[in-house]
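Exercise (ungraded).
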Amino acid sequence: MDDISRREKKRITSKGVRALRTQPGWDPANYRSPDPQDALQSLAAAGAQHRAYADASDCSMCQAERQRTKDDTALCEVHLLEALGL
Ligand SMILES: [Zn+2]
């Protein structure tokens, strides 16, 4: 919504970033995008992400990606976009 002021957005964003920083395993050095707007977006996508992971657990492309990257949470391009809410 455009009627949320820029200041309000910024306030919500820094709140989200603070919440993220309190998460265990949060490592700012590994976080490649310093843009707080992105952090807010990933918070907003968290709900969609859970759904995407449920679908992705049966996806052979996701499984291939996980083997390739040795990352249990890796997603194929389709499910990655879905997880991002795109
Ligand atoms: Zn997939």
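Further reading is listed at the end of the chapter. For now, observe: Residues 6-83 form one domain. The pocket of zinc ion is lined by residues 56, 59, 61-62, 75-76, 78-79 (CB under 6 Å).
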